[in-house]
Amino acid sequence: MNDRSFHAAQRFILAAKCQWTTKLYSQLRREYEAKCEQLGVQPKTVSEVAEITEGLTTYHFFAWMERHLQIAKYAGRYGLVPYYAERREQALKGIDSVPAGDSILELDAKLKMPLYYEATDIHQHPGGVWSDDTAGLVYEHGARTTTPLLGAAHEELHWRFVDEVGATGKPTRVLDMGCGFGKTTLPLASRFSDAEVVGVDLAAPCLRVGAHNARKKGLTNVRFKQANAAETGFEPSSFDLVTSSMFLHEIPPKVLDRVIEEAYRVLQPGGRMVHLDFWYLPDAFARFLHYGHGRRNNEPYMQPLAELDLPGLMRKKGFTDIQIRPFKESATTDTSSTAAWRFPWTYIEARKPAA
Question: The pTM is what?
Answer without folding.
Answer: 0.94
